[in-house]
Amino acid sequence: MISLPSVIPLFPLPNLVLFPGVVVPLHIFEQRYRAMIADVRRTDSIIGMTLLKGNWQADYYAYPEIYSIGCAGRIVKLDELSDGRFNLLLQGIAEFRVAQEIRERAYRRARVEWCASARQGADSGEVESAEIRRLLVELMGDEGEQILNGVLELKLSSWQIVNFLCFHLEFDPLEKQALLEALDQRAPYLEDLLIFKLQERKSGTGGQNGGSTLAQ
């Protein structure tokens, strides 16, 4: 496993849960996070993504509460705009648990404990992966089949497929946070969640989109 720092900056958001192996675009415009990017670009380019908790709006510009488990990512592409904002691509690398926050800069940092990689359990779960694929097709029909064909063309491993689906399927942020916290049980947890969504749709309580769950 690559060497990871014991202290990382935190970038809390209300609606984004990152997973290892997933690449996400981010636009950095707040001054405190511009300072964060200016700092990390000179070191290891690692940022810890965390989900905001509860009534975060009331304390957004200070220290709103966050979930203790997040996913760190490494900047793989960075563009600085003329006005000081940044566009970047962040690739998820590993889950972490916040052990202690360090509040001495404009942005939040934390001393973290790195979680055992979820890939250890996922690559041995080919049966679970096949069941997840079956459930997705049953839930989404032809669209689900097309999605899976596209994913398989990428030649992803089982753990990468699970993380890709956890990130891209239209689960709400709390469901995604629960999937992230499942760690090496992420594949069976995802299977259970898909079963629930399928039962919810069959009972007529799953919304007006016919149960399609892929994020646009």
Can you walk through the features of this model?
The protein is globular. It folds into two domains: 108 residues, LON domain-like (Archaeosine Trna-guanine Transglycosylase, Chain: A, domain 4), CATH 2.30.130.40; 84 residues, no CATH class. It contains seven helices and six strands; from the N terminus they run ββαββββαααααα. It has a five-stranded mixed barrel. With 216 residues, it is an alpha+beta fold. α3 packs antiparallel against α4. The C terminus is likely disordered.
Measured distance between first and last alpha carbons: 33 Å
What is the β-strand count?
Answer: 6
Which class of secondary structure composition applies to the elements? Answer: alpha+beta
Tally of individual domains: 2
CATH superfamily caption of the largest domain: LON domain-like
Determine the CATH topology of the largest domain.
Archaeosine Trna-guanine Transglycosylase, Chain: A, domain 4
Helix content: 25-40%
| Share of β-strand residues | 25-35%
Please write the CATH class name of the largest domain.
Mainly Beta
Overall form: globular
| Overall mean pLDDT | 86
Enumerate the strands of the largest sheet in spatial order, edge to edge or round the barrel: 1-3-4-5-6
Low-confidence stretches: 121-125, 208-216
Order of helices and strands: EEHEEEEHHHHHH
CATH architecture of the largest domain: Roll
Rounded to the nearest angstrom, the radius of gyration is: 18 Å
What is the number of helices? 7
Largest β-sheet summary: 5 strands, mixed, barrel
